[in-house]
Amino acid sequence: MIKHEGPSVKVGAMFRVRRLLAALVILLLLLGTALPLSGADRGQIRVIIDPGHGGEDSGAVAFNLVEKEFNLAIAHLIYLKALGDPQLEIILTRRKDVTLALNERIAMAHRLGADLYIAIHANASPNPRTQGLETLIAERAADGDGSLKLAQVLQKRLIGELEVLDRGVREQALFISKLKMPAALVEVGFLTNKEEANRLKKLYWQARIADALLKAIKDFINISR
Ligand SMILES: [Zn+2]
User: Fold this and answer.
1) What is d(CA 35, CA 24) in angstroms, rounded to the nearest whole number?
2) Residues of 74-89 as b/e, b for ≥16 C-beta within 10 angstroms?
């Protein structure tokens, strides 16, 4: 597969990142069994983080990066960084590399009574120079459910923290239109842009994205009160 190609130095770095991620997953599983109360029981805001693609659906692939793996890495970091936070309960739609239909992701958010839904994706373009970060929302007549506000807050905080090219908030015909809570989809960078891909594959940058997303979620909760 494409992810195993390329210079051996990069492959070695990828394996180290994967080993670290595997350790994080084990830690998550252990911590999961030690938390008897759900977030809703503790009065927390329940946030669904949906790492895009998975299993048979790899998403975009470029420069030794596979989107489904990248999205999952960011989601795990968000989950880990929010552990013990009295304000937030983060729930991931998938914790590993499994195929998950869009309808199942929607159903999960509704079944769990989520307060917010944020999908994590990485972008791709036929033009290798295209780069930047954008937040997508479903096309709607009005912002009755807070999705536009959520997207604006996410975009502002992410651009402020990460200082990458601002592609703005965009409306698209998206599956998240079915969601009954504020919902947005963040495209955190272009895997097809060499400069961005090199940054996106680094753990420190993934951690910065996770930090910025958590700050944005708190921004949105604070202005929604
Ligand atoms: Zn995607």
Assistant:
1) 17
2) bbbbbbbbbeeeeebb
- Ligand 1 center from residue 185 Cα (angstroms): 9
Which three-class secondary structure state does DSSP give residue 221?
A: helix
Kindly give the pairing relationship between strand 61-62 and strand 116-123. Answer: unpaired
Instruction: Assess whether pLDDT exceeds 80 at residue 37.
Output: no
**What pLDDT score was predicted for residue 19?**
72
Pick left, alpha or beta for residue 55 (phi over 0 → left; psi -120 to 50 → alpha; otherwise beta): left
Q: How far is the CA of 120 from the centre of ligand 1 (A)?
A: 8
CA–centroid distance, 49 to ligand 1, in Å, is 14
Query: Could you tell me the distance, in angstroms and rounded to a whole number, from the CA of residue 42 to the centre of ligand 1?
Result: 33
Q: Find tokens 């990458």 and name the residue.
A: 164
pTM over 0.85: no
pLDDT band at residue 34 under the 50/70/90 scheme? very low
CB 67 within 8 A of CB 74: no
